[in-house]
Write a structure and sequence with these properties.
The protein has three helices and two strands. It is α+β, with helices and mostly antiparallel strands. A two-stranded parallel sheet has the order 1-2. The longest helix is centred in the middle third of the chain and has 15 residues.
Length: 85
């Protein structure tokens, strides 16, 4: 389980890939999917610092995610080095 790999003291960044494959059935569909991911994380005991939806294939959301990580990490490469072995 993910909680065994990363310490609870470290913020979790949850990234959903393949959004290019999702049906664009209605306005705001990505917001609804993102909210579903947040709720699923909460149900599993994961507190997400940030949830990003991306497409590695098309590049959608990747630049925004990188910008967020760099801003949060203050260009240090990591927010937390306290990993559980």
């Amino acid at each position: 389980m993910i909680l065994e790999l990363v310490s609870q003291r470290c913020p979790a960044y949850v990234i959903g890939n393949k959004v290019d494959l999702l049906p664009r059935d209605a306005p705001g569909y990505l917001d609804r999917i993102k909210q579903s991911v947040v709720e699923l994380c909460e149900e599993r005991g994961i507190t997400a610092q940030h949830v990003a939806l991306i497409s590695a294939k098309t590049g959608y959301g990747v630049e925004k995610l990188i910008t967020r990580l760099l801003r949060d990490w203050k260009l240090q490469g990591s927010l937390c080095t306290d990993f559980v072995n």
